[in-house]
Amino acid sequence: NRKFFFKENEITPQLIEAIAISGISRLTYENLFPHVYYWQGKKEVDCVLKLKNEILPLEIKYQENISKQDYQGLYQFNKGILVTKNYSEKHEKYPAIPIHQLLAVLN
After folding, report:
1. pLDDT average per 10 residues of sequence, the chain (107 residues)
2. What pLDDT sits at residue 19?
3. pLDDT value, residue 58
4. What pLDDT is stored for residue 32 in this prediction?
5. What is the pLDDT of residue 30?
6. Among residues 5, 83, 89, 100, which is most buried (max CB within 10 A)?
7. Is 65 exposed, middle or buried (0-12, 13-18, 19+ CB in 10 A)?
8. pLDDT, position 31
């Protein structure tokens, strides 16, 4: 196992999104979530997990400030998880969790 170290300015939202989607996609090979999708309706959603008849949309926003607009892609599903840089919020339909917590669960 090789370790990679990034400088702060090399860690971009696009890189974090790719790492998260890669980790989530790995679940398909372990048969935990047989289907992983990207969704684009009125608003895009970075990742939609499907297991039998249940879906779980994830929107990844690696940024300092979170606003209501960041949840818009999830609204079309009436549920979902917002994955953030460091913001967390307990909400019945739309919880927000920091990316490090998602990655810890995936590993």
Report:
1. 74 87 78 73 86 88 92 94 93 93 85
2. 87
3. 93
4. 65
5. 67
6. 83
7. exposed
8. 67
In one-letter notation, the amino acid at residue 105 is V
Residue 20 near residue 98 (C-beta atoms within 8 A):
no
Q: Are strands 54-61 and 44-51 parallel, antiparallel or unpaired?
A: antiparallel
Sign of CA dihedral 11, 47, 82, 54: negative
The pTM of this model reads 0.82
